[in-house]
Amino acid sequence: MTPLWSIRLLFLGLCTAGGYAVSQVRPEYVSASHGGLIGMVIGFGFGGLLIAVDEMLKGFSLRAFSATTFGLFLGWLVALLIDHSGLFEHAEENVQWLIRLCLFLAFGYIGMVLAMRSNKEDFSLIIPYVRFSPQNKPDNLLLLDTSVIIDGRIADLIEAKFIEGLVVVPRFVLLELQQIADSADEVKRARGRRGFEMLNRLQHNSKIEVRIHDGDFPEEKGVDAKLVRLARGLNAKLFTNDFNLAKVASLQHVICVNLNEIGHLMKAALIAGEVVHIKIVREGRDKGQGIGYLPDGTMVVVNNGQNQVGQNVSATVLSTVQTGAGVLVFAEIKPENGK
Q1: Residue 322: exposed, middle, or buried by beta-carbon count in 10 A (0-12, 13-18, 19+)?
Q2: What distance in Å separates the CA atoms of residue 177 and residue 184, rounded to the nearest whole number?
Q3: 275-333: CATH, from 2.40.50.140, 3.30.1510.10, 3.50.50.60, 3.30.420.40
Q4: How many C-beta atoms lie closer than 10 Å to residue 237's C-beta?
């Protein structure tokens, strides 16, 4: 049982006991026969209703509640001004009551909707010099998943000042990283240890602040689903190397940055006739071809390079082909001294 449900059950018991106590102190509120039982049922129902409302509002953040309250206040203020404008003073008393009710309901609803659709810059125009978050705190929250922590490139980007903000690492991501580090598989164990080394490197970086977030969603079974919900609740950018997680996040309107996609975009574009210097590491699929790789990992197929395996050569780019895995470069060994 989660701590939240323990609190809910305690609250439900207190409501039931409170209903019984009220039935004994004020018996006129309930019938004479079975008054204590009726009071307990009323208290239990009241507590259950509040728990049901709490369950329906579990995706409702404190920021959204503040904005809704502010919008409701503005809507009611406009309704109050219209009510005191004297437009309905000649109407009958029962009609005036109905008009007031419609005014407050309509403008209250409109105010809440407009507040939910607005951002903090809109509020700063209404209330100058007032912000809902302190200015000394970074607005850019960077939520890291397990894959991007193990990868380690995020640390290089932060040190190079390409990425700035507050790094958020959820507690459930740390648990997943610990499970990988304790795995019986040697490769997984090495990846888990590398992830902890990257976190230690980030924590010792004076250019950025790292915080461990204790928020969890027990009703969600997968780590990916928890990350998406946490990113939506914190209004944070989710950093990952997982293609599927990035797609799921984008479908739920969560800003997600895939470092692998950034890596593909940052690769230098080669054009026909350009000379590259590579090492032929193995033979190609077709006769006479050799395979080499650029520093960014791009595969280069070199014609007449089969006999140059293990050697560094200069090759002239013939063409490039875009594939699902990236760019494939076709080249030919550059002749030396006219040979």
Answers
A1: exposed
A2: 14
A3: 2.40.50.140
A4: 19
pLDDT in tens, 187-206: 888 888 988 998 888 888 87
| DSSP-derived 3-state class of residue 130 | coil
In the chain, count H helices and then E strands.
Answer: 12, 10
CATH classification of 141-265, choosing from 3.40.50.1110, 3.40.50.1010, 3.40.50.720, 3.40.50.300?
A: 3.40.50.1010
CA-based angle 118:119:122, to the nearest 5? 80
pTM (2 d.p.): 0.47
Structural contact between residues 302 and 331, judged by C-beta atoms closer than 8 angstroms:
yes
pLDDT at residue 265, rounded to an integer: 65
Instruction: Kindly state the tokens that stand for 81.
Output: 């001004």
Calculate the CA 313 to chain-centre distance: 46
- pLDDT tops 60 at residue 131: no
